[in-house]
């Protein structure tokens, strides 16, 4: 019987979004392969305690800001000088630490930009995680109906200055020519920043207007037979069936809603955090939570296994200190 090994894994993140990878040292299975730092959870340890101990032993640092994220199970075959085993990986974001980071086990260390991976080979269990890290934790959605175009463009510029990296233009009420003019302005503004823009429409219209990607509503998702090429593709989902469809099609991410009651539909009952986490359990596709989201909900969403939160109103409001 293949043994189950519980592992605590640290995703060390710099303020600029870079994360740390380490190569497995010689003498260990899969030597030379790259992975996130971490190690086996010993008897009597919690995953967080193991994370701190491993960071001290491997990197000479003590994590001080730790955010639980997701669990991933992976079956490793007997290969690369390692026995067959099943690992249950407990991933944590680590955004602050004490001490000077150094390689304590003769391993190589490399900071990587989420969309510019330049080390290989990477351990197979880490591939879906790296895909998720290509996406930022906040997904903004336009709201011209309530804000008006001038206010929206002004708020967009502010958010871009503060690091916004993913935007959905969701304005189906606009005439085709008006949407085209708005799109030209938005894409011109975003071109000066590291922000990818998606259009909530058909893949054809998104390509025609020059967007980086397309966001599909649930009807378009269910009608889809293969992932559109040359676009970042997200989809709106409301249940397990739609999430599964997005995963089977290998879309880049999904948006699950409503998590909480919303201002536009206060009478609608949200999924709630417990059900939200249940629906995400076992999915490999990155998922954003939408519906009643505020900035302070990000930690809860991450703890449920989401990549982050999507916001249509709160994201355009000035953050409170």
How would you explain this protein's 3D organization?
Mg(2+) binds at residues 38, 58. GO terms for molecular function: 8-oxo-7,8-dihydrodeoxyguanosine triphosphate pyrophosphatase activity; 8-oxo-7,8-dihydroguanosine triphosphate pyrophosphatase activity; 8-oxo-dGDP phosphatase activity; 8-oxo-GDP phosphatase activity; metal ion binding. 8-oxo-dGTP binds at residues 24, 35-38, 126. Belongs to the Nudix hydrolase family. Keywords: DNA damage, DNA repair, DNA replication, Hydrolase, Magnesium, Metal-binding, Mutator protein. With 321 residues, this protein is of the alpha/beta class. The protein has 2 domains: 3-123, Nucleoside Triphosphate Pyrophosphohydrolase; 138-316, Aldolase class I (TIM Barrel, Alpha-Beta Barrel), CATH 3.20.20.70. The chain is built from 10 helices and 15 strands. It has helices at residues 47-59, 127-133, 144-147, 149-161, 176-190, 203-208, 218-223, 240-248, 272-280, 298-303, and strands at 4-12, 19-23, 34-35, 38-40, 62-76, 85-98, 109-112, 138-141, 166-169, 196-200, 213-216, 232-237, 253-256, 287-289, 308-311. Strands 8-9-10-11-12-13-14-15 form an 8-stranded parallel barrel. α4 (149-161) runs parallel beside α5. The longest helix is centred in the middle third of the chain and has 15 residues, at 176-190. The mean pLDDT is 94.
């Amino acid at each position: 019987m293949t043994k189950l090994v519980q592992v605590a894994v640290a995703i060390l993140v710099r303020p600029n979004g870079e994360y740390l990878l380490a190569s497995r040292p010689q003498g260990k299975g899969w030597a030379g392969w790259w992975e996130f730092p971490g190690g086996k959870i010993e008897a009597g340890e919690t995953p967080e305690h193991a994370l701190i101990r491993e960071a001290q032993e491997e990197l000479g640092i003590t994590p001080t800001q730790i955010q639980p994220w997701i669990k991933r199970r992976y079956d490793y075959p007997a290969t690369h000088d390692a026995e067959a085993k099943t690992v249950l990986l407990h991933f944590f974001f680590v955004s602050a630490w004490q001490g000077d980071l150094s390689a304590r086990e003769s391993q190589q260390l490399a900071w990587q930009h989420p969309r510019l991976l330049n080390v290989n080979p990477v351990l197979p269990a880490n591939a879906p995680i790296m895909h998720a890290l290509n996406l930022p934790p906040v997904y903004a959605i336009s709201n011209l109906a309530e804000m008006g175009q001038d206010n929206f463009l002004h708020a967009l510029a502010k958010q871009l200055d503060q690091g916004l990296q993913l935007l959905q233009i969701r304005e189906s009420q606009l005439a085709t020519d008006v949407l085209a003019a708005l799109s030209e302005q938005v894409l011109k503004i975003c071109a000066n920043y590291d922000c990818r823009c998606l259009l909530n429409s058909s893949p054809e219209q998104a390509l025609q207007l020059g967007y980086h990607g397309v966001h599909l509503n649930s009807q378009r998702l269910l009608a889809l037979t293969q992932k559109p090429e040359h676009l970042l593709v997200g989809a709106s989902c409301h249940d397990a069936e739609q999430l599964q469809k997005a995963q089977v099609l290998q879309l880049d991410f999904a948006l699950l809603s409503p998590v909480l009651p919303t201002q536009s539909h206060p009478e609608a009952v949200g999924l709630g955090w417990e059900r939200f986490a249940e629906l995400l359990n076992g999915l490999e596709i990155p998922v954003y939570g939408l519906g009643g989201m505020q900035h302070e909900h990000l930690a809860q969403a991450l703890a449920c296994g989401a990549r982050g939160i999507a916001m249509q109103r709160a994201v355009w409001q000035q953050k409170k200190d």
